[in-house]
Amino acid sequence: MLTKSEYAAAQSHAAAMIRESGLCITDDETHKVEVADFGLGRLDVEGAQILTLVATNRIAVKVVALFPGQTLPEHWHPPVGDDPGKEEIVRVVSGTLRLYIPGDDNMRAGSIPAGKEGVYTARHELILKPGDQVTAEPGTKHWFQAGEDGAVMYSFSSVARDVLDGFTDPDIKRVTEIQEA
Amino acid sequence: MLTKSEYAAAQSHAAAMIRESGLCITDDETHKVEVADFGLGRLDVEGAQILTLVATNRIAVKVVALFPGQTLPEHWHPPVGDDPGKEEIVRVVSGTLRLYIPGDDNMRAGSIPAGKEGVYTARHELILKPGDQVTAEPGTKHWFQAGEDGAVMYSFSSVARDVLDGFTDPDIKRVTEIQEA
User: ipTM of the predicted structure?
Assistant: First the structure.
């Protein structure tokens, strides 16, 4: 749950980060940045700001801005019918992005959000800089954390069905609730 | 046919344009920019410089740099098996991009390359600026022309099979030949 003013402030901050990263977005797109707190209500710790540029039945292009130290919770893209699951390629535009995937635990730069040790199971750390690009294979658990200056990244993928994504944390609700007050 | 030095000069020029547009590309990617003269041997008039960022069985992401006034020849993305043809979304990053699609002839800013009136049949002009985004529907003829400052654009698409693209101009060979001398 976020208040309207929290939502608006996060949207504005994220749009400024995207512009500062060198990407050109329109004024209209500024207001389309989705602020996702994943129902956890502590946006600066666990959350993401997402601008969808393209979403068709076949492809999706998103720009994701993460605030300094913000963590996008562990999730995976499950198979749907004949589809083996969303194939996602992440490309860093600005800042430092920590990507965690299954494998040997080599976590050094990043950290698990306090109290969430049980729901961040992927501990193999990749440190990505602008121009770095990595594929998240369908079905593979992964999560992101921005470095101290935040991060802006592209997500290029086959059709995105975000509401079908699996999350390790059972407390997560993918759709942000906004409080009127 | 391009000489090696023509190819290298065009690649370097295009990489500089891409960087000036605000996109971060790696040094390695600089050398992966494809210079396409479409077998016509007059690159500055008809050609394109293309950096493929992503090419999987499901999605493709390319950055296309067009020199000032350069024209990317009329083509279309044909159906392949069960696939209705490549779905392509173009998003302008820098400069002015003229896009031509079938429809009423309203061409004003652009012009057909000299002597090629017969092979540029789409004459409905759309003038695109940074942040503008348009979908080229599968099977629909289209061509591009950069404004006087050149243009850099993204092409987001379902799987790209460039060698299967149809071109209106029968003289076109999609793969650039490079002269050793």
Answer: 0.86
